[in-house]
Amino acid sequence: MKKLMLGNEAFARGLYEAGCKIVSSYPGTPSTEITEEAAKYDEMYAEWAPNEKVAMETALGASIAGARAFCGMKHVGLNVAADPLYTAAYTGVNGGLVIAVADDQGMHSSQNEQDSRHHAIAAKVPMLEPSDSAECRDFVKAAYDISESFDTPVIVRMSTRVAHSQSIVETCERQELELKEYSKNPQKYVMMPAFAKGRHVFVEERTKKLIEFSEKSSLNRVELSENAEFGVITNGAAYQYVKEALGDRVSVLKLGIVNPMPDQLIRDFAAKYERIVVVEELDGIIEAHCRNIGVNNVEGKSIFGCIGEINQSVIEEKLLGVKREFTELDENVPVRPPVMCAGCPHRGLFYCLKKLDVTVSGDIGCYTLGAAAPLTAIDTTICMGASISGLHGFNKARGADSEHRSVAVIGDSTFMHSGMTGLVNIAYNNSNSTVIILDNSITGMTGHQQNPTTGKNLKGDPAAAVNLEELCKAIGIKRVRVVDPYCLAETEKAIKEELAADEASVIISRRPCALLKYVKHNVPFKTDVDKCVGCKACMKLGCPAISMKNGKAVIDHTQCVGCGICKEQCRLGAII
User: Fold this and answer.
1) Taking CA 486 as the corner, what is the angle to CA 373 and CA 549, rounded to the nearest 5 degrees?
2) For residue 166, is it left (φ>0), alpha (ψ between -120 and 50) or beta?
3) Around Cβ 155, how many Cβ atoms within 10 Å?
């Protein structure tokens, strides 16, 4: 049956058809929907793990047990999972192990723009890269065959455009597989030095065999054109841009296996043309490989650079000298930056932090928008969990004055992901630091996924819920308190008191995300225009439901959820 599918949906279909049994992932845009779609198939067990490292270790354990397994993450998540990945390259697998990593060229929803092909090269594991939804399904199935044939984990590299675009997929029935037999084998699975040395030899021999496989695999293909002016080597989403922009004016070598890459196939293709252009997004990995194997008539990054996405217009302009014309609008359309939603529970907290002129060590989540105007409350954001560890280091470096003027903010899901160990560090090393856990009862930024604090699992079934108060106390924090961020006075008082204390403390700012379906909102507020003097005190909150019209504050009742912090802010009683 043919069906229009998102790349992520097709990826999940590939898992199903290939007989995958165990799925463990951590949500991260643009990879999240793979696991959400996989959970819809009852034949596969699917879960959200606390972080990517745990997810990969879970999937590897299932693979060793004899099941085909999968774990998915975004590109920065692979950094977290790198520890098990690099050693899994040595242990190999039993049942097939496929890993999805979704790169975010253009940084649509990420803090950096890293190229995950580097991880595959460094870990010495094969990596495949599909170009559309149909290939997502096909490459997953091929990845399992490669995994089991060559005794290796296989990474499938996705991108934002492939993950979130749609194309036709022809579905098949599921291949139901029995568990492979598990046999105790310390030399293969116990990576202490004596055994790991032998497995390193295996890895190097496996790489040679994978290169031979790559030379002949249909996953790499040559598309020759009689009218070709030059040759193009490309991969992933860039292949689609090349075909649309250049058509039959070029011949194309499409690399579906991006690690290890073929040698002779590339040499033979390059020998046909005086000019070879590599079109690849981010780093010049294919281009460097070409030069390393003696193909010198190649260019790529000197034309396209290594920042951001490539598209059809860029290719036409850079390679054909044709600049597409676009219709210019006479109207000056204002920029619409991302903001926290109307009624977001984090807004009141960040307003109080800004008011108190507190230095804020931030973290990864929708609350990172607290760095934007008019709140501009966050000083740093690095990676998952870094807010707490970074605050500890900041305070140790700057001393007592900093301790009473600095906090870390971290979401409930991010705290479970990698914030706990930072809090342990604070307690263990006697750091006078204040940590604020923004508990909105969900994993908000990636689309409302459950986490270990919510009391529900991936399928929405009841699950054990971590009690944040008790957990923080068990870690060694004696001062733990809960506030409602909709109450500005209470929140400000708590921040002042905990910053004044001479010991570590945790404030849990608890209020469910305003977008959760089960959250019941209050009646929307409105402005008494006779009392409003246009002081714009309410505008300092940065709520998208509030605007100024004719010198008066106006509240959009279609957006307002009745949180009330604007009413508390208005000293004239103009908001009712």
Assistant:
1) 50
2) beta
3) 26
Residue listed under structure tokens 């229009």: 4
Alpha helices in 164-311 (DSSP H): 186-189, 193-216, 236-246, 264-270, 285-292, 301-304
Q: Are 230 and 248 in contact (CB under 8 A)?
A: no
| Buried-exposed string 440-453: b where 16+ CB fall within 10 A, e elsewhere | bbbbbbbebbbbbb
Question: 159 is written with which tokens?
Answer: 């991108």
* Both tokens assigned to 68: 């085909």
CA distance 92 to 126: 12
Instruction: Enumerate residues 6+ apart whose C-beta is below 8 A from 184.
Output: none
Determine the Cα–Cα distance for residues 576 and 573; give it in Å rounded to an integer. Answer: 7
What angle, rounded to 10 degrees, do the helices at 488-500 and 346-355 form?
50
Residue reference for tokens 């529970």: 345
| Percent of the chain scoring above 90 in pLDDT | 96
Query: pLDDT, tens digit, for every residue of 249-285?
Result: 999 999 999 999 999 999 999 999 999 999 999 999 9
Say which DSSP state 418 is in. Answer: I
Decide: 17 and 136 in contact? Cβ < 8 Å: no
Report the C-alpha gap between 80 and 116 in whole angstroms. Answer: 12
Q: How many CB atoms lie within 10 A of CB 327?
A: 4
Fill in the amino acid letter for 132.
Answer: D
- Take residue 270 and report the two structure tokens written for it: 């390059």
Residue 15 and residue 21: Cα distance in Å, rounded?
9
Q: Give the pLDDT of residue 322.
A: 87
Range with lowest mean pLDDT among 26-30, 329-333, 475-479: 329-333
Paired tokens of 543:
């709520």
Give the neighbor-by-neighbor strand order of the sheet with 45-48.
45-48, 22-25, 69-74, 97-103, 154-159, 127-128, 257-259
Q: How far apart are CA 87 and CA 93, in angstroms?
A: 11
Secondary structure percentages of the chain, helix, strand, coil, to 5: 40, 20, 45
Q: Name which of 68, 132, 64, 137 is nearest 94 in CA terms.
A: 64
Q: Where are the extended beta strands (E) located within 441-484?
A: 479-483
Rounded Cα–Cα distance for residues 183 and 198 (Å): 19
The DSSP element (H or E) to which 499 belongs, if any, is: helix 488-500
User: Which residue shows structure tokens 């920042």?
Assistant: 307
In single-letter form, the type of residue at position 570 comes to: C
Distances (CA, A) of 118 to 111, 225, 260: 18, 32, 11
Q: In what order do the strands lie in the sheet with 505-510?
A: 380-381, 359-362, 406-411, 434-439, 505-510, 479-483
Q: How far apart are the first and last CA of the chain?
A: 57
CA distances from 81 to 25, 30, 159, 532, 569 (A): 11, 17, 18, 54, 45
CA 440 to chain centre: 19
Beta strands in 302-371, from DSSP E residues, in sequence order:
359-362
Within 8 A by CB and 6+ apart from 329, the residues are none
